[in-house]
Specification:
two-stranded antiparallel ribbon, 484 residues, single chain, Arc Repressor Mutant, subunit A, mainly alpha, 2 domains, four-stranded mixed beta sheet
Amino acid sequence: MINMNAGLTFGWKDLDAEDSYVVSASEKINAVDFGQLAALYQPIIGTAAVGLYTFLAQGIVAHPKISDRQTHKGMLKRLDFDVSAFYFARIRLEACGLLKTFVQEDSLGKLFIYELLRPLSGYHFFNEDLLSTALLEKVGNYEYQKLKEENCPQTVVHPQAKEITKTFLNVFSIQQDTLMQQSSGPKEPQKIKSQMVDEIEAKIDWNYLAQLVQSSHLQDDILEKHHHNIKIVSAMYDFNELTLLKLMQQAYDYNLEDLNDERFRTLAKQSHDRLEVKSQEMVPSQPLAESAPVPELQPKNQQEASLLREYGELLQSCQESDPGDFLVDLKKTINPNFIVTDQEQRIISEAVQRQVMPQGVLNMVIHYMLVDRDMDSINKVYFEKVVASWTKHGIQTPLEALSKIIADNNARKKAAQGGGNASGQRRGFYGKRRLVQKETLPEWAQEGYRPPKIDAAERARLEEKERRLKAKLAELAKRNQTKK
């Protein structure tokens, strides 16, 4: 999250309205630059800082002189700023590489020299990790992708074409002595590539993070290749090494065998937003010293006891996991390329805020839709339909939820075999697809149960999917136990 450093809060007290200033710029600032400023920088720095930049740009002259100094008093009056508002707008420009500030004292008093810098082009802006991450944080993934597409036009792919572009000296002739004379003359100032990432501080134990990476399935050189991106995410959201590893695993592209930087930043924002939602739900009057223990699952009958033995890892993970984390981990387990969409995040966050049902049951709804119903994402209409049905039947624990899933599945199957219309009545809710874990249900749960005939390849695929899912659930249960 983007916050102002507390140490800068009273920096404006070193500035007086009677202090003088002059404005300079090493490059001409044009209309295109102001377009980039409004589209890409304004969401980060705010309208006050954009107004200050525009005002200073109007004061640029070709040959600025110290004697042309003006007091800040006139500028503050024109901008309708007080000193503190001006100061905070100014340091935002400085932080984003749009302004350099110098100060000196002479016989006439304190003098500030403001050197305006041009905004980065779209391509360079989105390749500047810190700025692009800050923009994503401010506008969200949808607007971010839209701005990126508008400001980073793509070239035509020409794999079969041969370049025949001429160089300058192919077209123009310059006398050798003139060229040598020009090359030995004074150099014009060049714009240096922004090094904003190198200036930030991130509290990362890189050695510890490297050990975590080595013990995972990630490539060993991932920290070196994506150092800047990881550093930015850690600094912006204050994530620890374990959280960073988890995000890297979720954003890892198994086809390219590399980290997807954009997905990594998107997942980091989603994770941070979920934490904010949780913190807002906390009641201030409640003691924070100890969190309430998660109640253990207690079977009420023989059927639930059997389910607890058969699906203990799944049920315990549902009971203990945060729904947001459960959704992310489950989707990555099902398919490493799956990500949590903004819509899914809103659906789960709203359900948590409204406290529509216990979090263990909410996690079972997620598992039911993504695994049992084999959906690619959480559909809001279907989600609310399941929640309404389970709430109506008084489902309060993951065990009760799983019992209902099995009972409804058996009832639907029996009705279909008997030619009744119960199947048609329930089809909108349960559809025709089988439960993913149908082949592993205990025999007592299915009347006249017969194992389905599947080929060796399909069996191997299902077994591998089940193995990965159980391993992930075991990891979740272990991590939740550690948090206690």
